[in-house]
Amino acid sequence: MTSMRVAQVTTPGGKFEIVERELPQPGPGHVRIAIEACGVCHTDAAFVHNAFPGVEFPLVTGHEVAGRIDALGEGVTGWRTGDRVAVGWFGGQCGHCRPCREGDFINCANLRVPGWAYPGGYAEAMVAPEQALARIPDELPAAEAAPLGCAGVTTFHALRQSTARPGDLVAVLGLGGLGHLGVQYAAKLGFETVAIARGADKADLAHRLGARHYIDSTTTEVSDALQNLGGAKVVLGTAANADAMSATVDGLAHRGELIVLGAVPEPMSISPLALISGSRTVHGHPSGTAQDIQDTMAFTALSGIRPMIEPVPLEEVNQAFERMLSGAARFRMVLTMDR
């Protein structure tokens, strides 16, 4: 094969079109991946609409990639052709900025996100630096592994780095692409898990995912409901709604923390008094490194957690993208490459 199909956007805000491109060759320290699946993340829309600096068009986005290595660049060690690998939001670090020198690679000042720094996973193949690779366990099909490179690692890694310990009350705000995984991880990590979403109809799903409690935010004051359960040690804010995340702060226990994952530009409204009272904290969490992704997939396979996905062929990328944007996806759209 000397060419590949990609789904590209030629102008900001435009539609995807399927075109043929020359098959790329990996340079030193890079590998080429024959892509089998790529998740459709809401952040992809920000790239398509040119909301990040330095986005170049025509654009091939996608940062939830699963496939197999089919070519090695010079100097690559520890990897072989045929290895099953994933690449997520973390697509490589510069190695010389202060966060990198401190070993804080996910906060690299020059973080290389696939579909932004280089062509991403809405394609049959891509080239990525070896530092971005995570191994996929045999138990995980590519279509289920792909969303773990962003949605999965973001929720799992946030929870395992939190102050919560097994038995603590942990609430997950939102039951979408991130939230439905967050509830599963929280339950399997041993937390008394609370799911918070809009509508009574989501209660059954929340309990099936492992939640012990469900709060319908349309009929209940979320903070009061959390306090009635004893107060949340952690709230995992996956909902892309600044007001909804802000409304959980008064439901935190003493020294409780709100971990912000919902990436929205709107400001949050939180009273300083609410933070001072009970020594509460609010902070963001930016995904995870390649090793964190590999850890996420290993825990996912071990614990029997699975993302709920809607796989569609690459040719239906526009329909998948619109379904993601509308909020109708249940719960992660995944593009698959016919081979």
Automatic annotation (TrEMBL):
E.C. numbers: 1.1.1.1
Which InterPro entries does this chain map to?
Answer: ADH-like_C (IPR013149), ADH-like_N (IPR013154), ADH_Zn_CS (IPR002328), ER (IPR020843), GroES-like_sf (IPR011032), NAD(P)-bd_dom_sf (IPR036291)
Q: What is this protein called?
A: alcohol dehydrogenase
Q: Which family does it belong to?
A: Belongs to the zinc-containing alcohol dehydrogenase family.
Cited Gene3D superfamilies: Medium-chain alcohol dehydrogenases, catalytic domain (3.90.180.10), NAD(P)-binding Rossmann-like Domain (3.40.50.720)
- Coiled-coil stretches are none
The residue ranges of the Enoyl reductase (ER) domain are 13-335
Keyword set includes Oxidoreductase? yes
Q: Would you say which domain of life the source belongs to?
A: Bacteria
Organism in which the protein naturally occurs: Streptomyces orinoci (Streptoverticillium orinoci)
- Key word Oxidoreductase present: yes
Q: Which Pfam family, an example, fits this chain?
A: ADH_N
Q: Which UniProt keywords apply?
A: Metal-binding, Oxidoreductase, Zinc
Cofactor(s) needed, names only, are: Zn(2+)
In terms of PANTHER family, this protein maps to: ALCOHOL DEHYDROGENASE 1-RELATED, ALCOHOL DEHYDROGENASE-LIKE N-TERMINAL DOMAIN-CONTAINING PROTEIN
